[in-house]
Amino acid sequence: MNNLQSMLNDIEKEVRLTRHLIGKDALNHRVIAAIKQVPRHEFLPDDYRFLAYDNGPAPIDCGQTISQPYIVALMTDLLNTQATDTILEIGTGSGYQAAVLSRLVKQVYSLEIIEPLATQARQRLKKLAYNNVTVRHGDGHFGWPEQAPFDGVIVTAAAPFIPPTLIEQLRAGARLVIPVGLPYSYQELLVLEKKADGEIKTQTIMGVSFVPLTGGKASTHKT
Asked: At a CB cut-off of 8 Å and minimum separation 6, what does 176 contact?
């Protein structure tokens, strides 16, 4: 069994184990196909490539991590993407989540607050020909107003509260997938859906553990 197939099998096992939380027995086949297409080892530093197809998080540069494959697959599934969508990602990291999304949607805009990571991810994604991903160094708390509204927003770091700007930049009918909670304490993965009348429907999926969302109002204000 190759490493990729082992990782896919682990994702399937995790889905079965958490089906009572996520409300489904299998992830969307488009999401699994996208996971298959993206070589995860290309998004890890050389010293940690041996961890690429383990079903767990792994270190990348600047003290950050690449998320567990199951969590990447689950959050992508929860976003409920369509091929014509434009998606905003907050927290580019190594670029892996953006690469997975790029196989599913028309355009991905990704913000990374750590400038060296933004530069590395931009170069990596260009080298690997993920041409429908645009990476910018910036504070994800404020979103990307020039490109809004978005057909979905995904946040790959835990916020102490839900940034209102990201809700404002959602198109009606779109979803925000975000982990919420304090650093190194209990966090919850939430899905927010913006209704046509502006009402927000919120669903709590499960407990998770993410690095903290930093920058901007996220560190100084609460709503």
From this structure: 152, 153, 154, 155, 162, 166, 167, 170, 190, 191, 192, 193, 194
Distance (Å, rounded) from C-alpha 96 to C-alpha 72? Answer: 9
* Residue in 120, 116, 122, 50 with CA at minimum distance from that of residue 108: 122
Please say whether the beta carbons of 90 and 154 come within 8 A. Answer: yes
The tokens for 184 are 């190194």
Class level of CATH domain 3-219: alpha beta
Residues 176, 29: Cα–Cα separation, whole Å: 21
Q: List per-block mean pLDDT (blocks of 10 residues) for the chain, which spans 223 residues.
A: 88 96 96 97 95 94 93 97 98 97 98 96 97 96 96 95 95 96 88 92 93 66 31
Catalytic residue status for 94: no
Catalytic residue selected from 67, 94, 102, 110: 67
- The sign of the torsion formed by the CA atoms of 56, 59, 64, 69 equals negative
Provide Rg for the chain, Cα atoms: 16
The total number of residues written for the chain in this structure:
223
Among candidate residues 205, 144, 145, 216, the one with its CA nearest the CA of residue 179: 205
Structure tokens at 214: 């930093």
Both tokens of 157, joined, read 């770091």
